[in-house]
Amino acid sequence: MIEVQDLHKNFGHVEVLRGIDASVAAGEVVVVVGPSGSGKSTFLRCINRLEEVTSGRILIEGQDVRDSRTDINMIRAEVGMVFQQFNLFPHLTALGNVTLGPRKVRGASKAEADDIGRKMLEKVGLGDKIDNYPSQLSGGQQQRVAIARSLALSPKAMLFDEPTSALDPELVGEVLAVMRDLAREGMTMIVVSHEMGFARDVADRVIFMDGGVIVEEGKPSQIFKQPKSARLKDFLRRVI
Ligand code: ADP
Ligand code: MG
């Protein structure tokens, strides 16, 4: 589904990604862990071209995201992204936020978009909050609206960049539960997260990044119980 080949990304003279090779199969859940500044966000942002790649290839179902013929709005619809900050429009209701994409990107009618929007908000457990504005929702509810907003575009894959890091601890669980459901339904997902419990339970594979490279990857049991590299051992000592 997603194929990344020798991805390099520089910011000015600083090489932030130094040759990333990764592939994610349809339905696979990959959790990316690593210290702050290791390039995890940049890696995700390159996949749906929020960042211009310096060199290397990124294919989504065989389609090169850098190809000039590739419609970047289509890539962003088909590879949904959820951020630490929910970035909802404050002047739109939950339903308004979720229906914007289907209307603007997919060209859905208001009735069609409302129908999709209601279904997606129900799916994330917010069927009774469709008319609430973001300011009338908790952080966990806002993040679930943000997930529903991505899902409303029928993505082929979802990227999550520390989706629970901005939440009060008691609200983390409700967002992780929605992500677990998505994973169970077979959504292809790449998740950057410090939630080691989620990684252990839900990930098919864990990737450990440090210094702009993938240092180690494997099944959660391997990564957490039998880390090979000193860098991963050191990281685990600090986070667990
Ligand atoms: P992580 O998500 O693992 O914490 P990031 O991908 O955010 O890491 O950042 C990796 C490195 O790239 C950091 O050193 C960061 O300062 C740098 N960086 C990220 N975005 C930019 C940018 N837009 N301009 C310059 N440097 C950046
Ligand atoms: Mg980050």
Automatic annotation (TrEMBL):
Pfam families: ABC_tran. GO terms for cellular component: plasma membrane. SMART domains: AAA. This is Amino acid ABC transporter ATP-binding protein. It is found in: Cell membrane. SUPFAM superfamilies: P-loop containing nucleoside triphosphate hydrolases. Keywords: Amino-acid transport, ATP-binding, Cell membrane, Membrane, Nucleotide-binding, Transport. It comes from Ferruginivarius sediminum. The keyword tRNA processing does not apply. PROSITE patterns: ABC_TRANSPORTER_1 (PS00211), ABC_TRANSPORTER_2 (PS50893). GO terms for molecular function: ABC-type amino acid transporter activity; ATP binding; ATP hydrolysis activity. Belongs to the ABC transporter superfamily. Residues 2-236 form the ABC transporter domain. It is a peripheral membrane protein.
